[in-house]
Amino acid sequence: MATSSPDRETFTRSCPICEASCGLRVEVDRNARRILSVRGDEDDPRSRGYVCPKATAVKGLYEDPDRLKKPLRKTDDGWEEISWDAAWKLVGERLKAVRDAHGKDAVATYIGNPIGHCASGLLAVPMFIEALQTERLFSAASMDQQPKNLTSSILYGAMWAISIPDIHRTDYMLSLGGNQLVSQGSLMSAPNAKKQIADLQARGGRLIVMDPRRTETAQVADEHHFIVPGSDAFFLFALVNVFFEEGLTNLRHLAAFTDDVDRVRELAVPFTPENVADVTGVPAEATRRIARDFAAADKAVCYGRIGTCTQEFGTLASWLVDVMNVLTGNLDREGGSMFPRPATGQSEHHMWDGSEFELGRWKSRVRGLPEYEGQLPVATFAEELEEASAGEERARALITICGNPVLSSPNGARLAAALDELDFMVSIDIYLNETTRHADLILPTTVAMEHSNYDFLFAGTSVRNFARYTPQIFEAEEGLPNLGDAILEVAARAAGTEGHVLDMMLFEGMLATLVGKPGTPCEHVSVDDARAKLPTEPGIERLLDIMIRTGPYGDAFDDANDGLNLAKIAAAGHAVDLGPLERRLPEMIRKEHGRLKLVHEIFEQDIERLHESLEARRQPGRLVLIGRRQLQNMNTWLHNLENLAKGKERCTLLVNPEDAKQLGLADGGEAKVSSRAGSVTASVQMSDEMMPGVVSLPHGYGHRESDTRLRIANEKQPGANCNQLLDEFSLDVPSGTSIANGVLVEVASA
Ligand SMILES: Nc1nc2c(c(=O)[nH]1)N[C@H]1C(S)=C(S)[C@@H](COP(=O)(O)OP(=O)(O)OC[C@H]3O[C@@H](n4cnc5c(=O)[nH]c(N)nc54)[C@H](O)[C@@H]3O)O[C@H]1N2
Ligand SMILES: Nc1nc2c(c(=O)[nH]1)N[C@H]1C(S)=C(S)[C@@H](COP(=O)(O)OP(=O)(O)OC[C@H]3O[C@@H](n4cnc5c(=O)[nH]c(N)nc54)[C@H](O)[C@@H]3O)O[C@H]1N2
Ligand code: SF4
Ligand SMILES: [Mo]
């Protein structure tokens, strides 16, 4: 939405940096192609003017002189800019050559986090996967929410059927391993987390935080308890144990379609609060009281995030979070944990193709780790590329898509070396950074103001239903594609065709699947009638319009219907509020039997591993590392913006003062942190925020290569790459997720 004056126009848009997706007001001079200011949009119904410091990245990225705008090809004399035609031709030749000589699995691919914030990218990925057919697909998911995806696949039949805290209506929120004040809420998209929590408390509600660090969120919570990293499954089992022992379970509406409650009771028997207290660090009385308070609250919600996912028992902890909500009848209930309903329809039951959950349809070549949803764990990435590990079976080419795995995944040094063994590497990325410096070709894409967008993924994780479209403001530079077009073009060239062919296939495929589908409001609409009402231009608009019109709030291609279409959402100029979360079970369950079966053999087997780890965890003197996020960072990639990189060194090792004393560390001094995988040095920051026996380093740092183009990052916030300490062999076994929290380390003065 624009207010006019040729050299000073204001547009509203959604912030594409984190899940909160706040509303922004951006002032621009379109003639001069300049962004004049970026502020919060007071009229946005979701964020009401709130923004965090990272909102300015919309301007910073657009203006960053280090950002790439032309394809860069590596030559013996360094990088050279080449034309787009030459770039696409090169991609086609090199990828096709590898596929012809070594087969489809010789082309590996890695997809990083920013794709989640980009509709064109998200919509292109299924076609990209279809065209490449590679068994070697890696992504940031196995460093992130994969345990939650897996438990949702098992329980509800869909990886994104993740329930979200109904923070606006709850009385009691038990939050484990999330730091909403900094992350702005993840798998609970909610702008202005601080206000959401204050509102909860003003209503008389309470927030209880379980975290090995007294975080920013813990400081505003009603209770904070230290918990030993990786021990959440023990703690949650102990709460479940108390529910059964004290007769506190009450499944309410869920009882009619939930199975295996008795089996859960049996499984919880050994985990009494007293039995696990020394392992969790939570006193038994506190555990018992939390169980009683949770069960007594009229509306309660248990929620877990990164700290409960990227740890030794990520799957069990993620599962037990849902078990807590089920046993107290708080799943799919107001004020509990509920399933969002995005307007684009991806969570509708009719999107289910009838197939049941399967894990391990293929395995990684070297270690035999199972695929999940078509992906292999990023922990196996390096070895699948190395001749020494994978021999003739190794991948010879790699496509990276907005990811920086050299810094974001375990043992980046090994991965960096493996990247140099490749015959061909192409990176779709806006920076020459620690990962893309290994590429033969870097293909940049447009940034926020140069393409249109739609909040596709995070409308599915929001605490209230909403729909939002963001228009393009600036023309892109000549040839510069948006992320989705670049992905389609790369896939097309590898398959010997061109991007527009895949774009058309995507469009026609979507029309054929969604229009006229039996059992939907569009059952009697013909594909031709629908096509006549859609934008004719290629791109995301016509795809989104199909999804929205056929979706749960859609107009079903009927002009007399007051339902939604893309034009109506765009005309709103802000997020369109679609109301509070509503009940969706059991209709949403995508299973043959349509029942919520709480126990699966995958959980049963892992509980044996949980039992086995009890004794190991009782060893005294364990020192473990956890991560931490910071307001000015976004994983590895915003450190090159002056106003976000300025200030004190941020990549410090937080150490409890008692530990520091024992380890002989001085505040501000250098420490060497070592693990089985490697070692890094960092300056020590003593802090009683830390649980004794736990140290913390933020991730995303380690900007230390002189041949990148990250002038500001390298100079102002180089930091240390904490992922050098992460071991590619330490996994949450069922989901293949890497352990980033609870890594055994030794620390000494450097
Ligand atoms: N130790 C530890 N490690 C972690 C985590 C942790 O908590 N602890 N967290 C993990 C999590 S949750 C995640 S999501 C991953 C993230 O892991 P990655 O996705 O691998 O890393 P990012 O830093 O998000 O990388 C973003 C890349 O995309 C590029 N980029 C940014 N915007 C655009 C764009 O608009 N277009 C294009 N083409 N490129 C763009 C950037 O230049 C950068 O190269 O890190 C994981 N790593
Ligand atoms: N400013 C900023 N915001 C971001 C990001 C960012 O890099 N910067 N990244 C975005 C991304 S990609 C994601 S996935 C989200 C993540 O969103 P969050 O999960 O909310 O983010 P974190 O700050 O990593 O919170 C994890 C918390 O878990 C705690 N923890 C560590 N180990 C354990 C454990 O074993 N048990 C328990 N109970 N707690 C533990 C840590 O101390 C930390 O406070 O944030 C998103 N938002
Ligand atoms: S909280 Fe996230 S979405 Fe909101 S302004 Fe900050 S970075 Fe953007
Ligand atoms: Mo993430």
Report what the structure shows.
With 750 residues, the protein is α/β, with parallel strands linked by helices. Among the domains are: 163-338, Dimethylsulfoxide Reductase, domain 2 (3-Layer(aba) Sandwich), CATH 3.40.228.10; 619-749, Barwin-like endoglucanases. Helix content is 32%, strand content 16%. The protein contains 26 helices and 32 strands. It has a seven-stranded mixed sheet, covered by helices on one side. The protein has a seven-stranded mixed sheet with strand order 31-24-28-25-27-26-32. Helix 3 (119-132) links the parallel strand 7 and strand 8 (137-139). The termini are far apart. One ligand MGD is lined by residues 18, 113, 144, 176-180, 182-184, 186, 210-213, 215, 227, 229-230, 232, 305-308, 311, 626-629, 631, 633-635, 741-742.
Helices and strands in order, then pairings?
Elements: E1 2-3, E2 9-14, E3 23-29, E4 34-40, H1 57-63, E5 72-75, E6 78-81, H2 84-102, E7 107-111, H3 119-132, E8 137-139, H4 146-156, E9 164-165, E10 172-176, H5 180-183, H6 193-202, E11 206-210, H7 216-220, E12 223-225, H8 232-245, E13 258-259, H9 261-268, H10 273-280, H11 284-296, E14 300-304, H12 306-309, H13 314-327, E15 337-338, H14 381-385, H15 387-390, E16 397-401, H16 405-408, H17 412-419, E17 424-428, E18 441-443, E19 453-454, E20 464-467, E21 469-470, H18 483-494, H19 499-514, H20 527-532, H21 540-550, H22 566-572, E22 576-580, E23 596-597, H23 601-617, E24 624-626, H24 642-645, E25 653-655, H25 657-663, E26 670-674, E27 679-686, E28 694-696, H26 711-716, E29 731-732, E30 737-738, E31 743-744, E32 746-749
Parallel strand pairs: 7-8, 7-16, 10-11, 10-14, 11-12, 13-23, 16-17, 17-18, 24-28, 25-27
Antiparallel strand pairs: 1-2, 2-3, 3-4, 5-6, 5-18, 9-15, 19-21, 20-22, 24-31, 25-28, 26-27, 26-32, 29-30
Helix pairs in contact: 2-18, 3-18, 4-13, 8-9, 8-10, 8-11, 8-13, 10-11, 18-19, 19-21
The structure holds ligand MGD (2 copies), iron/sulfur cluster and molybdenum atom (MO).
The site of molybdenum atom has 2 residues, from loops.
